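User: Predict the structure for this protein chain, please.
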Amino acid sequence: MAPKTDDSPELEIRPATNESWPDLEVLFGPRGACGGCWCMWWRLTHREFEARKGERNREGLRSLVEQGEVPGLIAYSDDEPIGWCAVAPRESYPRIGRSRILLPIDEQPAWSIVCLFVRKAYRRCGVSERLIGAAVDYAMGQGARIVEGYPVEPKKESMPDVFAFHGLASSFLKVGFREMTRRSETRPIMRWYAADHGVPPRLEIVN
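Assistant: Here is the predicted structure, written as structure tokens:
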């Protein structure tokens, strides 16, 4: 998938597991990556999310990994956690099915990439693209043949990082995704099809 470029750091990308939970806590920090989210936004209703924001969301994500679920991937540079990508079967994120602009485009089973978070010092140097590529590899390793993304394509050249947690459309395009539909001017639905590439995944994930 997304190859390393000259200005991107050396990375190891590993599944988030019970053993790596302390690293995820370090990466997300006391704010849970952003406003107490702890990457639970897509898994809860709006009312549930608001009621659980902060510590209860942290407990929710912690419970997932304790039960053996892998909610995403962690990127490391020199053994320091510096990036996150949430990826799971689409049905793991019920809010997608309730979103007017992100309703499923068909009934084909798909995995979804719903969130990216990269430490400030490592942004804009290709980490997101490599996390997206690793997420595709991981999903394929679990049997997926379609992976979806729901990125932002901003109207202006730059946008505040806090609004880019879905990822940028340009990052998904670099990894081989293609736009399928667009129900909002700035929010395409994009897909990566195994059939488009016809090659086995180049795994960058360390188990």
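Residues 127-141 form the longest helix (15 residues).
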